[in-house]
Amino acid sequence: MGYGKNLSRRVKDVEISVPIVYGTIAFWLGRKVTESQSHRWTIYVRGGTNEDLSVVVKRVVFQLHPSFNNPIRVVDSPPFELSECGWGEFEIAISLYFHSDAGDRKLDVFHHLKLYPLEQNGPQSTKKPVVMETYDEVVFPDPSEQFLARVQNHPAVVVPRLPAGLELPSSASTEERRGSMKDHPLGHWFMNFSEADELLKLAAARQQVVAII
């Protein structure tokens, strides 16, 4: 039997994990702008250390407040982000859709847009933004051989030691793809997350993607 016919087989007792960060960076635009356009903000989903997630993520859908024009925004290519202007804080629903070899699955998360600092000492600054980010980990249990072969050496993906005797074809280039957030213009505001600390927090509760019905 040719190897190509076996790529859809599941690899038991293996978990692929993908560290992700989702959040917002909001800048106050100063006193000269209108009250309804007081802030410019960007919401995004990035790799745990800013890698391009398109090896796993097919598209991201952001659902904004209904007061925005076209509140449901679809981003089909990296970087998975969008920017807007406004004055109010609200909850943004984020849906991550994964490639078909990951099982046609998606993950829904929620992020609260924060425009104003929690502790205000003096006037608000136009130079220092308000940054709110959440670290999480998407887990793919028992992945298909095709998915595992494609992502096994990608920097955005954590693959454990493979079962003895499992042979996979050579993976694609491990160079970071276009859309990586390593050189993002807002990258110096991104938070750094300690992997050891976060792994301890995630040991009790890890996000598992759910199948689309």
UniProtKB/TrEMBL annotation:
Main location: nucleus
Start and end residues of each YEATS domain: 10-154
Pfam families: YEATS
Keyword field: Nucleus, Transcription, Transcription regulation
InterPro entries: YEAST_sf, YEATS, YEATS_dom
Subcellular locations according to the entry: Nucleus
Protein known as: Transcription initiation factor TFIID subunit 14b-like isoform X1
Lineage of producing organism: Eukaryota, Viridiplantae, Streptophyta, Embryophyta, Tracheophyta
